[in-house]
Amino acid sequence: MDRPERVVAAFARGDKHAGVAVIALALNHPGPAEVLPVVAGALESPDPEVRRQGVIALAHVARLHRTVDRRCLEGLRHCPRGNEADDDLWSFVPHRRLPLWLWRHHVGERVARLLPARCR
Prior knowledge:
The chain is 68% helix and 0% strand. It is mainly α.
């Protein structure tokens, strides 16, 4: 799957595999600017499974293209912390482009690693 319009059409017709198609799009399409709006749509879905698949797709986009957009970050903000996208965004996207709520999640982990074992 490498055509965003086909994935959008799958969502529009209520295809039960639309979330999987978003993941395939994230892995196969060369342009993050075309993929991120579709990923954001998955993150905004009322279906929890499609939102989970949107998180996975966002993780792939972060890893492959080292970028994210505001709409995806807003959608991700409403997901439980510690997911694949949180970790891949933190690992692959420049930290200055990430929101404060994601920093808060990861700073505690970083501080814990810096402390000697006896202080933890």
